Amino acid sequence: MGSCNFKSDTLDTTQSLSKSHFQFHYGIGKGGFGKVWKVEHKKSKEAYAMKEMSKARILSKKSVNSVINERKLLSYLKHPFIVNMQYAFQDRENLYLVMDLMPGGDLRYHLSRKNKFNENQTKFFVACILIGLEFLHTNGVVHRDIKPENLVFDKKGYLTITDFGIARIWKPENAKDTSGTPGYMAPEVMCRQNHGVAVDYFALGIIIYEIMFGTRPYLGKSRKEIRDQILAKQVQVKKEEIPNGWSAEAGDFVNHLLQRKPVNRLGLNGPEEVKNHPWISDFDWKKIKNKSFQPSYVPNHEEDNFDERLNIDNDPWKDADSDALKESTLLLQNAATQEMFSGYYYDISQSNSNTEIANKNNC
Q1: Which of 70, 212, 227, 298 could join 190 via S-S bond, C-beta 3.0 to 4.6 A?
Q2: Which position among 100, 106, 145, 154 bears the catalytic label?
Q3: Span 5-31, pLDDT tens digits
Q4: Which residues make up the binding site for ATP (predicted)?
């Protein structure tokens, strides 16, 4: 696969942004380190999604490298089919990542309310995801956490990819990078083996299967249970199992994505072989890329497309009295600890072409 040599991050770390520059409206999600808010930039009046992350929780989970990595990746990754970063800053207690607001909510929200989408709607979702993955993979990045919660609708009804917390620039020896969501995690990641772009296509296969049948192919209460199921059998959608209204090509597409061995999996050799599969090959890719195609399902962005709004006054971290978190909170008083988060600041208005994806000649 392609690989980019990212240029060094030379952004000025002198912060000119703070929490006070934004009007907080309400919570629209929860993450591993805190909340996601709908906010408005007081000066520009632009609405954004702001991820607020507790440094103490980041420290207690030994995830400093992951959050710094996400910030660095997003300063280079700019594309219409991913959720782009606009600002990043910090104070003593928290990191703040300000992203494009996707008013249509995430795919999980709509799956839980609509139950199932039809084949044409699903095919369009897949096309959007493939365009986003093509951009990432061509530039040497593996997302590693593709799932309905990380696919969000823009105001036109196009799906975009978000949450790059465990995304990585691909390297040959990456067996130790085993993070992800078990229900969507590829077997090679589950089994702590080296892995590449094919893990994202396995996750895509899980999502299509879930939309088709209303459940994931491998279920379990723990990572071990799911891994044991994957190792026990190769999921195969049989023709007689295909739901009414779905084509045999759809089942074939899923079967090729859900191959346990990555060498047999559709997508191992790049996005073109996925796009050339008979189920998806007839799409007008140019129209989708320039977003002139009319989706058959468009969330009403005037409505609240998020799970129940989070109480803005609630403490988002219920385990604040845990020993590990208490210890991490005390560490924040040390200058050396704060230095671990240095260089986090980002302002898109101060960036230039050097913050775009590295020159394609290096890929």
Answers
A1: 227
A2: 145
A3: 444 444 344 568 999 999 999 888 888
A4: 51
